[in-house]
Input
Amino acid sequence: MLTDHHAGAGRSMDAQGEEITVDQAAEDFAAEVARWREVRGMSKRALARAMGFDPSYVSHVESGRHKPSEDFARLADEALKAGKSIWRRWRTYEKARVRTSLTPSSPSAPHRLEQPYATDSALVVQHDAASLQYDGRSYRLTMRRLLRNTGTEPVTRYLIRISVDRYPGDPEQSNAHYRAHPLTWDELDLTATCRGEKMRWQAKHDRDAFKEVWLLFDNEHGRFPLYPGESVWIEYAYTVGHEKWATGSSGPCVCPPSSSKSNWSSRLLSTPSSGAPRHP
Output
């Protein structure tokens, strides 16, 4: 089911109340791995090393080039202490795969998994800045990024990720907390601008403690894509209530990006030492 969010012009792309397709299940698995990897503050290479896989393997799984496997799911869940969240996503994928293999179907055009980030367009983050405000009830995070298109095709959207972890080190408790108190679109109050123009947004994954959102280079007045060779500042902001923030927080801490490439995303993370948010 596709749900339009008129206030933010967003749209949920997760299947709800319907049998999920094998392609969507694979995307959901990749997103779950990426979510927990970032929550734990691990690079793709670090996770691959911890699992005993080739350094590029995690990248291939997250990008959809490699299909989920039982061995990978078990090891990733253990390495990331995901409380069986990754394992459950693999079970969903496997059920969809088996169901598809048993269902006769007419030949169709090959489906290309949507890449999590605009890597094909060589989108580069040249500068990154963040500010955090707390009013006693909620946190409002504002991100400013200078994006440059070093590719050969126009860029029409940019993916961000929002992820929270109330109880670092205790994924089962965090999962239970967010099942009872999920992040909502109304609460997040996501806004985005580019060159002073409001940007529409479109939800890619909508889960209790994890959102992936496409920021679109367009609005009701027209489109303003980022053309090859161009750079542009974008700014976006969202809100998270105090009760969904990490426990034991001694104050916000915003870290500089670890990579200038666009294969990282906005997120709200917690570390065992401070419980404060970090950014890649």
